[in-house]
Design brief:
Layout: H1 3-13, H2 61-75, E1 85-88, H3 90-102, E2 108-113, H4 117-125, E3 129-134, H5 136-141, H6 147-152, E4 159-165, H7 177-190, E5 193-197, E6 222-227, H8 228-231, E7 240-243, H9 246-257, H10 265-277, H11 279-299, E8 312-316, H12 329-337, E9 343-344, E10 355-359, H13 365-381
Helix pairs in contact: 1-12, 2-10, 3-4, 3-9, 11-13
Length: about 375
């Protein structure tokens, strides 16, 4: 769905007389870990002069080492060293760097759908052809589907990469080990890169998060992306990192040099404080998000799969579209008029034009309950 549709909804929201419920934003209502707040680090009262200087383009050494320790301990990537890491301006920049480094214009990339919308734009900007593969939506309906056969049916002679998010944005699917191993076999059989978007790794409610690069034979062909935006509620600081084989990271460093040069030192310092001291925050957030997930899923009347992870419900609004409507835009406009803004489903894949994404962590539980009651009322009225 063209971004102009979403822009139209946001413009319409400006006419709402009260506060719009921000169900469209992939963020949290929680403040970040106290240790990672800029004020706690002294940036508002005479910061260290070094904070005004350039950082090494690949990342501040102490921060990179903290990430190495985290990847060893939490992700099982015991092969990772500083040479396998690039600090980036959020996950979006990380994805752009790895696509521009590993892939060439004219090549094809499989986007396992529904997929994170910006990956399509990043890929198009690099001259790639995006091939949407109905995937998590299929697995929710039929967990026994032949994953290898499904992927193979979308391969072309120019396919060079597969992209997916785990947990998935927008439907919260957490892939099982068997499903990931099937993807790995296809990648190895055809010599494909795999871009594994793991920004929601900390928020799994059912199942377990498995870092794709830990599967046998995949460390050398996997680019993994992480972000402090989701893991620690630090979206505004724009800090992420890319992990991959050292031969790829040489190119990623060049891409960083020629785009942002380096991530600001204060932002890296805040992110490091989060990764070192933020475990309790993550545990609290996961417990709270689980309650929000259950509350939203139990209350909403629109059909959706119960997410295993991430922070969204992906709603099927097909039955609420009026006769002649070929998308859910009309439904979303009526929701805007009732004070709620959701993300159009067509942004996540062509077959999801009658769907919408709702972020259940963007408001507190009381607001969530009240807003979903209003949402249901709009849907009931048709």
């Amino acid at each position: 769905m063209p971004s102009s549709v979403f822009e139209g909804l946001k413009h319409r929201a400006q006419n709402y007389p009260g506060k719009i419920v921000p169900f469209h934003v992939g963020d949290t209502h929680l403040p970040p870990p106290e240790a990672a707040r800029l004020g706690a680090l002294g940036f508002d009262c005479g910061p260290d002069p070094d904070m005004y200087k350039y950082s090494p383009p690949h990342g501040h050494q102490e921060f990179v080492q903290a990430i190495v320790r985290k990847l060893h301990k939490r992700n099982g990537m015991d092969w990772v060293g500083p040479e396998n890491i690039q600090i980036t301006m959020g996950a979006t920049h990380a994805l752009s760097c790895c696509v521009r480094t590993a892939l060439d214009p004219g090549e094809h990339i499989l986007l396992l759908a529904p997929h994170w919308p910006l990956m399509r734009g990043i890929s198009h900007g690099c001259g790639l052809r995006c091939v949407e593969v109905p995937f998590s939506s299929v697995l929710f309906q039929d967990p026994g589907v032949d994953v290898e056969a499904l992927l193979e049916s979308f391969l072309t002679s120019r396919t060079t990469a597969i992209y997916f998010a785990n947990p998935n944005n927008p439907d919260g699917k957490v892939f099982t080990r068997a499903e990931l191993e099937a993807i790995a076999r296809v990648a190895q059989r055809h010599g494909l890169w795999v871009i594994s978007d793991e920004v929601y790794e900390n928020f799994v409610y059912n199942g377990e998060h498995i870092s794709f690069a830990t599967l046998p034979g995949m460390a050398e062909r996997t680019m993994t992306v992480y972000s402090f935006s989701k893991s620690y509620g630090l979206a505004g600081l724009r800090v992420g990192y890319l992990v991959g084989p050292s031969r790829l990271m040489l190119g990623a460093r060049k891409m960083t040099n020629h785009t942002v040069y380096n991530v600001p030192r204060p932002m890296q310092a805040a992110a490091m404080a989060a990764i070192v001291n933020g475990d309790a925050w993550v545990e609290n957030a996961r417990a709270l998000y689980t309650k929000h997930r259950d509350l939203a899923y139990d209350l909403v009347i629109a059909p959706c799969a119960k997410p295993d992870g991430a922070t969204y419900l992906f709603l099927d609004l097909t039955e609420y579209c009026r006769r002649g409507e070929d998308s859910a835009v009309g439904v979303l406009e009526r929701l805007v008029d009732a004070g709620m803004l959701l993300t159009p489903g067509g942004s996540f894949g062509q077959q999801f034009k009658k769907w919408a994404r709702l972020c259940f962590t963007s408001v507190c539980a009381e607001e969530l309950t009240e807003a979903i009651a209003r949402l249901n009322e709009v849907l009931d009225k048709g």
